[in-house]
Amino acid sequence: MNSNDYRSTLGGVTPSPAWRERTLAAMEQAQGKKRPSRKPLAIAATAAVLAVAVTGGVWLSGRTEVDPDGPGTARTPEPVVTPTPTINPEWIYFETFSIVTDPRQLMGNNPTAGRLEELTELPVYENPIPTEDQQRVLLNHLAEELGCTIAETDWSPSDGEETMGREPILEAECTDGTQLRLRGVYSLQIYDSPDLAAVAETAQAYLIYSAMTPEEMLSSSNIPPQTSQETLEDYAYTGESMPTQATFLLDPDATLEEQIYSYSFQRMEVRNNSLTLYLQPGKSVGTFPLRSPDEALACFRSWDYWGSCYTYYPESAQIILISLEYDISVGQPYFQPVYRILYTQDYWDEVAAHQMFDGVDTSPFTGAGIAYVPAIDPKYQDEVPYRRYFNDGLAYMGPEEWE
Question: Please, are residues 21 and 397 in contact by the beta-carbon 8 Å criterion?
């Protein structure tokens, strides 16, 4: 492996919070430097942020010029004045985010944009741990639907409930070289296909017709479900674009609850020459009240959120968009709704430039972060515990962790 290949490989690996904490602790011990305090915002500062009325659940930063008549825009609020923190240049380089040329590249086409005020409660779904036999039956069915012939398989058991390896994995190699990877019973990854475009076309057809009953498929008057698309685009440290192209079912006449369900579970994504097909979850365990978008934003501002992106200064982050979706990341005991907060920082232009490889024109690039806040009212979260993993640990940014 030459030096460029080595740097490219490492450039795609982001350290987990657990790894980062061990590294920072070692650095402090060696350098005798005190870590910056990560205490929650003062009450007055938080109140100033929350005093801004947000109609429709969309916050738009003054940093980006967004068409006020564009899709998903409820309105453009007055600029929010937040305290300007003293930025420690030695520590901001440990912040993590996606590299973009415009934070709006990570907005997507979530159906909740501009409509969050319509939601007061949502169901939560089981994510059962299947047996090996159950996975084999499911994978055989999916392979047949996709026109693949399985040659050999390899099964890996679950690592346990409290791990990111909670779901067992069944992998298969097909006769044409296509690789299938079934995680639990809710996602199938397809890669190394000799014709990924053809697989994507077949997968989209499966996505559409698996949502129909046999009677609907046989009816000549029935109209198949509609699909919609979104493209989320970020960049490697080499400056290479890495778009994620998603297709999901969308019925504009359905309730918003039904649209969120389809957006989260009845979708497929193509990225880096692989395709992931998301499957429908287990049964609902009940419907739960939601906390408000204002409360979710307050959690983020106060260091109470989840995700692999983080900043030392959430109080100064510029909020681009707040939307709502079901978290389908690995290790979830329950699939439940979360607020997705897209944000940026003024100084991330400089940090992004620092991270790019030598020889890359860094002038177009900046950073965009995504924070996740559980949407279920905290009074009920013990009933449906939430977790999100990143690499080797829980991806939680809590105020008690940073005092």
Answer: no
Tell which residue, 17, 93, 5, 10, has the closest CA to residue 307. Answer: 17
Q: Give yes or no for residue 138 having a pLDDT over 80.
A: yes
274 within 8 A of 190, measured Cβ to Cβ: yes
Residues 6+ apart with CB under 8 A from 71: 109, 113
Is pLDDT of 170 > 90? yes
- CA distances to 39, 105, 236, 293, 367 from 313, rounded to whole Å, are 10, 22, 24, 20, 14
**Nearest Cα to Cα of residue 49 among 306, 309, 322, 308:** 322
> Looking at the DSSP assignment, which residues form a beta bridge with residue 31?
none
Backbone angles phi, psi at 283, to 5 degrees: -75, 160
Neighbours of 366 (CB within 10 A): 23
pLDDT in tens, 88-109: 777 788 899 999 999 999 999 9
For residue 332, what pLDDT band results from cuts at 50, 70 and 90? very high
Report the DSSP beta bridge partners of residue 34: none
C-alpha 14: how far from its chain's center? 15
* pTM score of the predicted model: 0.80
DSSP secondary structure of 348-384? HHHHHHHHSPTT---TT-EEEEEEEEE-B-GGGTTTS
CA 168 to CA 323: how far, in whole Å? 30
d(CA 39, CA 312): 10
DSSP E strands: which ranges in 101-226?
Answer: 121-126, 150-156, 169-174, 179-183, 187-191
Name beta bridge partners: 270.
245, 275
Angle of CA points 134, 137, 141, to nearest 5°: 140
